[in-house]
Structure to design on (324 residues):
């Protein structure tokens, strides 16, 4: 017998499966775990499946019809379920990625200040737009609908509902999805894609218009810009809630084609829908374009330029400090 080592011929089948396992692994998993596209797809599937369950359960309990005026109760129930579904899908993905669910937009500094600033600016911006439409004759006020205790009750009720809307929609499209997709294709490509998805989600609204859909994508980009600068969703949630509350409850106008029961003022659009917004509401007006530009410019001046100036001042003050 020879003591020379014998060359072992590799098993072709084992080699084949080994190579394929490696290729399959690289297809689905990268250096940072599951690849961004697959992660977002899993998130979307979980959200969709849970949404089907919610629709099936609620469908047996009550008639979900948002073609007419929406009540506070229906809005609260629907948005609560929606937010729970988003939170559950985010929680599952956070567990897979070994992160906190709050890491997708709800950590960082100045949370309360940014949230309150967003609320104030959201209401202020819709007030400016409504004021311009009223002065131009494109929006007519028909008087007060509520007063006394009823006005406060509905103000609070719709405030809660639109807070749920803000948290739900921002978490769905600018929370986990934006965070993860940006890892794969970059922040602004992700922002453009998800803003388009945000707009398409409003297509089914009864009174929505083509320009209203485009405007929703503009709003999505503004919210992404706030995320880019502040690294959190608190400002966006506040602005979203303040805008919707002002539009639907305070001024009594349609909001992306949807109308509510129990609003403070009664109003109706007048003239060309291109200027008045028509059945879409004020945000369907062409006048939204300069408002979006002003808001975006203000964000750049307040957060962008201010940050650069502070960074420049900080570097130069450090350079000027003598070493001891």
């Amino acid at each position: 017998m020879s003591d020379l080592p014998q060359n072992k011929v590799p098993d072709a089948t084992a080699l084949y499966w080994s190579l394929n396992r490696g290729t399959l692994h690289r297809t689905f998993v990268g250096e940072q775990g599951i690849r961004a596209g697959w992660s977002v797809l899993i998130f979307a599937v979980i959200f969709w499946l849970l949404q089907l369950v919610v629709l099936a359960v609620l469908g047996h309990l009550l008639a979900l019809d948002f073609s007419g005026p929406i009540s506070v109760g229906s809005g609260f129930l629907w948005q609560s379920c929606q937010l729970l579904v988003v939170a559950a899908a985010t929680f599952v993905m956070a567990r897979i990625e070994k992160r906190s669910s709050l890491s997708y937009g709800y950590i960082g500094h100045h949370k309360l200040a940014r949230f309150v600033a967003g609320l104030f600016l959201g209401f202020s911006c819709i007030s400016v737009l409504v004021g311009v439409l009223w002065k131009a004759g494109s929006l007519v006020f028909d008087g007060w609908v509520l007063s006394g205790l009823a006005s406060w009750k509905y103000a609070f009720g719709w405030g809660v509902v639109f807070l749920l809307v803000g948290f739900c929609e921002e978490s769905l499209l600018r929370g986990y999805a934006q965070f993860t997709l940006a890892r794969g294709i970059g922040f602004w490509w992700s922002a453009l894609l998800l803003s388009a998805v945000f707009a398409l989600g409003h297509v089914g609204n009864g009174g929505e218009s083509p320009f209203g859909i485009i405007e929703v994508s503009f709003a999505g980009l503004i919210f992404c810009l706030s995320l880019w600068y502040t690294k959190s969703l608190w400002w966006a949630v506040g602005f979203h809630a303040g805008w919707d509350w002002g539009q639907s409850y305070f001024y009594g106008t349609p909001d992306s084609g949807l109308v509510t029961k129990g609003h403070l003022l009664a109003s109706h659009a007048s003239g060309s829908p291109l200027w008045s917004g028509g059945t879409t509401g004020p945000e369907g007006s062409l006048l939204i374009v300069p408002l979006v530009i002003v808001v975006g410019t203000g964000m750049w001046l307040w957060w962008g330029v201010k940050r650069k100036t502070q960074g420049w001042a900080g570097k130069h003050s450090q350079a000027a400090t003598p070493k001891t």
Q: What stands out?
A: The chain has a mean pLDDT of 85. The longest strand covers residues 139-144.
